[in-house]
């Protein structure tokens, strides 16, 4: 994918039950009945090897609570044609390629700094690393891929795409109802458990870290973390 900017980045939240559970307050977990959609700024895209940069605005140690920048390993789907009202059984036909992705998220801005809207905390420059695309013809089953995220070489996330709440086909069909999804758009399909905010104690990204997202058959996306400014 390099540094090319897609026309849109559509992202799905809470698409793995274990991730929804790790960030829910005790006794409040309710799994989504429909896909949870938010957007990332296309200008946030970077490629493999490029640095995830932490500008001054994302350092929130002086805020209450002092919540930082997190990783989210994900499967990315890249559309090969405009798509509207796609039947679930035909969803694969509009996919050009898939890739490893990291939905980098500044949690304070996501949860507290934008009136309950997630876009700001997800859209800072460099906050959407995308790996090189793998043509869809080379992938037998999108719901049978192993996703692994490593932080400084330690496995922090690992799950099969079979455990998604909403399959890739369901997501494309649902998002395209009455809405044209433009060719080249990227769909980030959700992250499994193991994010930094869900750890005890929490572990947020800091200068010098390296985050790797690997998906079976798609290679490995690796990005260092650097302070900026």
Enumerate how many helices there are, as a single number. Answer: 4
Q: What is the CATH homologous superfamily assignment?
A: Fumarylacetoacetase-like, C-terminal domain
Strand content: 25-35%
Beta strands, count: 15
Structural class: mainly beta
Give the terminus-to-terminus CA distance. Answer: 27 Å
Helical amount among residues, as a percent range? 10-25%
Gyration radius, rounded: 16 Å
CATH class: Alpha Beta
Task: Please indicate the count of domains.
Answer: 1
The parts where pLDDT drops under 50 for at least 5 residues are none
CATH architecture: Alpha-Beta Complex
Multimerization state:
single chain
Spatial order of strands in the largest sheet: 2-1-13-6-7-10
The secondary-structure element order is EHEEEEEEEHHEEEEHEEE
Q: In one word, what is the shape?
A: globular
For this structure, the CATH topology is Fumarylacetoacetate hydrolase, domain 2
Biggest beta-sheet profile:
6 strands, mixed
Mean pLDDT: 95
């Amino acid at each position: 994918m390099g540094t090319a900017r897609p026309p849109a980045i559509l992202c799905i939240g809470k698409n793995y039950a274990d991730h929804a559970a790790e960030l829910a307050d005790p006794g409040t977990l309710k799994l989504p009945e429909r896909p949870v959609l938010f957007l990332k700024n296309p200008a946030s895209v970077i490629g493999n090897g490029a640095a995830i940069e932490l500008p001054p605005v994302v350092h929130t140690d002086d805020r209450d609570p002092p919540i930082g920048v997190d990783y989210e390993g994900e499967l990315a789907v890249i559309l090969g044609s405009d798509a509207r009202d796609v039947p679930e059984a035909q969803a694969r036909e509009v996919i050009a390629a898939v890739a490893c992705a990291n939905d980098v998220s500044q949690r304070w801005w996501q949860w507290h700094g934008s009136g309950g809207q997630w876009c700001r905390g997800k859209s800072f420059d460099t906050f959407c690393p995308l790996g090189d695309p793998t043509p869809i013809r080379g992938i037998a089953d999108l719901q049978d891929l192993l996703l692994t995220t490593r932080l400084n070489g330690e496995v922090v996330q690992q799950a099969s795409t079979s455990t998604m709440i909403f399959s890739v086909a369901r997501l494309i069909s649902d998002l395209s109802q009455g809405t044209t999804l433009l060719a080249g758009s990227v769909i980030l399909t959700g992250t499994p458990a193991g994010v930094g905010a869900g750890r005890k104690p929490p572990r947020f990204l800091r200068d010098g870290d390296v985050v790797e997202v690997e998906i079976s058959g798609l290679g490995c996306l690796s990005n260092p973390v650097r302070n900026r400014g």
